[in-house]
Each structure stands twice: as structure tokens, then as C-alpha cells.
Amino acid sequence: MIPGSEGSIPAIAGVLAAFRAHGRPIVHVIRLYDADGGNAELPRRTLVAIGGPVVRPGCDGSQLRAELHPPGRGFRLDAELLAGGGLQEVGPNEWVMYKPRWGAFYETPLGPHLCACGVDSVAVSC
Question: Which residues pair with 96 in a beta bridge?
């Protein structure tokens, strides 16, 4: 968890609950850093390479917070699927997606996925 971000979890959970209640599509966007830092943003690359507290695939810190999971649906992220550009379905109308850089639309399936879901407006919660 990034220092100072803990307080945003209840607000994000509230947004997710509203979207779920109205059957709106949800895409959780995550980052996963390779152990050598090769896919990390330049400002984080050294920290990752020396073993800093980062979101390496498979570690607990790389997982979506349990408070943000769909009700009654615990899951672990499939790092291989996500890093390969796939979307992991985690609930009805709900997926997790990996982004390789700062922008969630850059070199990701997000745009085509949202179009396929009939989405014409996006809400961002972080």
C-alpha cells in the first residue's frame, strides 16, 4: 500500500458498490513489477531492483485489496494472464487489467474492452 492511500479504500469501495448495484462494468487497473525493475517507471526502477516494497507478481502486495473484491468472491490475481495482456474476470461484469505504464489506455485492452461493453463514459476512482 502506498503511504497515505489507506484512507481512500472506503470511498473506492463505495463507488464499486454503486456500480455493482447498477450492473455497470468495472475494470480494476493494476501494476505488477518484474523483480529486476525492467518494467517499472524510471523513478521506481532502482527501488524495485534493490528489492524495495513493490507489487511483484504473486506477493500479497500485488493483490487487489479484499475490501474491493466483489461480495463473496475472494480471488488471487493471475499475474501471467494479466502481464500477457489478458483481462481476469473476477465477478459479474467485473475484471482486473494490468497496465504496463502510467496510462491505463496505453498498450492495454482497456479501450476495446470498454467499447465491447457499450461504455461511453468512464469514472476513475483512486
Answer: 28, 88
